[in-house]
Design goal:
Pfam families: Acyl-CoA_dh_2, Acyl-CoA_dh_M, Acyl-CoA_dh_N. Keywords: Flavoprotein, Oxidoreductase. InterPro entries: Acyl-CoA_DH_C, Acyl-CoA_Oxase/DH_mid-dom, Acyl-CoA_Oxase/DH_mid-dom_sf, AcylCo_DH-like_C, AcylCoA_DH/ox_N, AcylCoA_DH/ox_N_sf, AcylCoA_DH/oxidase_NM_dom_sf, Mito_Isobutyryl-CoADH. With 391 residues, this protein is α+β, with helices and mostly antiparallel strands. It has ten helices and eight strands. Helix 4 runs antiparallel to helix 6, helix 6 packs parallel to helix 8 and helix 8 runs antiparallel to helix 9.
C-alpha cells in the first residue's frame, strides 16, 4: 500500500506567474478548439514543460504535493484561459490526490505512474459513467465486468463521458468482478492495451474541447496487479471525506475561473463600447455599474467560500462534515458563476451571444457546472436531511 506524507507544500514563488502566462496563451486558441471540438494537445505539452502536471503527486515520488488552496488557484487560473483544458487537468489532479490519500493502490504501480507523470505527459482519469447506469454516485452495480483469468483481468464494458480520452495514458475503470459474489472497484487500463477503443461521440453544448468520448473495452486484458482497489459493494459506502471535498472544491474553482474570465471581458467591453447617442462609454451608466457590482459581489462571495474552506483543510482545521461543507460550496459558487455570466448576457444583449465574442462560450461552459457529481439536488437533499435530523 502507498504510505505518504500528505502535508501540503508551499508553492514556489513563480508558480502562479507561470500559470497565468500559460492561461493567457491558452486563451488565444480556446475559441478555435471550442468551435471544431478539437482537443488542445499543445496545451498539455506546455503544462508538462512548465512542470504543472505533478502538483498533486507526492513529494516522496518527485511531485510537488501542493495543498488544496494552491491547486484551486492553479485550476481557476487555467480555466480563465481555457475551461476545457482546466477540466482535463483537474481530473488528473484528482486521480493523483485520491490515490495518495487512499493508500490502497499497489505501491509499485502507483510509484511507476508518478514517475511517468514526471517524465512526460502521462495523464489519467476515471472511467465510471455508463449508458445504462448513469453515474455510480447514485448507486448501482456497473455493467462493466472484470473476469479474473490465469493471464490477468479481462475487461468488457462501455463507459461514457471519459474526459480527456484523446490524451489519457491510463483509464481508472470502475467495474465489477464476475465472481459469484461480485466485488466492485478500480482497474488500471493502459490506453495501448488491445481491446481498448475510443468512440468519438462527444458533441456537447459546453466544454467542447475536453474530448469526453466513449471508452469501449472489448476483452481488454490487464495484469492481475492492475486491480487497484476492489472490495464488496458495501465496503464503498463510506468514501473518504477529503477526496469528496477536493472534487467539489476544485470544480468550484474551475467554474469560478470561467466566471472571472467573463467578468474581465465584460469590463473591457463596457469601457470600450461608446454608443454615438451617449457620447461616453457604457461603463459610465449607473445601470451597468450596478450590474457589474452584482457580479463582483457574487465572485467575491465565491472566493471567500472556496479559498476559506481550502485553507481550513490545508491547516487541518476541519471536522467530519468537511465533504458536505465542500458540496455546499460547490452548490453556491457554481450557482453564483452561472448567475454572474447570465447577468453579463442580460446586460449587453445580442453581442453577448455572438460567436465573435467569448461571452457566449463562457456561458455554455459555465452551465456544465450543473452536471458534475454531486449534483445540486443531491447536495440540497443531504443538507436538508442533516438539518432535519435524518442524515
Amino acid at each position: 500500500m502507498v504510505k505518504l506524507n500528505t502535508s501540503p507544500v508551499t508553492p514556489s514563488t513563480d508558480l502562479f506567474e507561470r500559470v497565468a502566462s500559460l492561461a493567457a496563451d491558452f486563451a488565444t486558441r480556446a475559441a478555435v478548439h471550442d468551435l471544431d471540438g478539437s482537443f488542445p494537445f499543445e496545451n498539455f505539452t506546455a503544462l508538462q514543460q512548465a512542470q504543472l502536471l505533478n502538483l498533486t503527486v507526492p513529494k516522496e515520488f518527485g511531485g510537488q504535493a501542493l495543498g488544496y488552496a494552491a491547486v484551486s488557484r492553479v485550476i481557476e487560473t487555467i480555466a480563465s484561459g481555457d475551461a476545457a483544458t482546466a477540466l482535463v487537468l483537474t481530473m488528473h489532479y484528482l486521480q493523483h490526490a485520491n490515490a495518495s490519500r487512499s493508500r490502497r493502490w499497489p505501491e509499485e504501480i502507483y510509484q511507476r505512474l508518478c514517475r511517468e507523470s514526471l517524465a512526460g505527459i502521462a495523464l489519467l482519469n476515471a472511467a465510471r459513467v455508463e449508458p445504462e447506469l448513469g453515474t455510480p454516485a447514485r448507486g448501482g452495480l456497473p455493467a462493466t465486468t472484470a473476469q479474473q483469468t490465469p493471464d490477468g483481468w479481462l475487461l468488457n464494458g462501455h463507459k461514457i463521458y471519459t474526459t480527456g480520452s484523446p490524451i489519457l495514458s491510463y483509464f481508472v475503470v470502475w467495474a465489477r468482478t464476475t465472481e459469484p459474489e461480485p466485488r466492485v472497484g478500480n482497474f488500471l487500463v493502459p490506453r495501448d492495451v488491445p481491446g481498448v477503443r475510443i468512440a468519438e461521440t462527444w458533441d456537447h453544448l459546453g466544454m467542447r474541447a475536453t474530448g469526453s468520448h466513449d471508452l469501449i473495452l472489448e476483452n481488454a486484458l490487464i495484469p492481475l496487479e492492475y486491480a487497484l482497489d476492489i472490495r464488496p459493494l458495501s465496503a464503498w459506502s463510506l468514501p473518504d471525506p477529503l477526496q469528496l471535498a477536493g472534487n467539489s472544491l476544485w470544480l468550484s474553482a474551475l467554474y469560478q475561473g470561467v466566471a472571472k474570465a467573463a467578468r474581465d471581458w465584460l469590463v473591457g467591453y463596457l469601457n470600450e463600447r461608446s454608443p454615438s447617442n451617449l457620447g461616453a462609454s457604457l461603463a459610465t451608466l449607473p445601470r451597468f455599474q450596478t450590474a457589474m457590482g452584482e457580479i463582483e459581489a457574487l465572485l467575491y462571495a465565491s472566493d471567500r467560500l472556496i479559498y476559506g474552506l481550502a485553507h481550513d483543510i490545508d491547516r487541518a482545521e476541519y471536522d467530519n462534515t468537511v465533504a458536505l461543507q465542500a458540496h455546499s460550496v460547490k452548490y453556491i459558487t457554481t450557482s453564483n458563476a452561472i448567475r454572474a455570466v447570465e447577468t453579463g448576457l442580460e446586460l449587453i444583449g445580442n453581442p453577448g451571444l455572438s460567436r465573435h465574442n467569448p461571452l457566449e462560450r463562457y456561458y455554455r461552459d459555465v452551465l456544465c457546472s450543473r452536471i458534475h457529481t454531486p449534483q445540486n439536488d443531491a447536495i440540497c437533499m443531504s443538507l436538508g436531511k442533516r438539518a432535519l435530523g435524518n442524515g
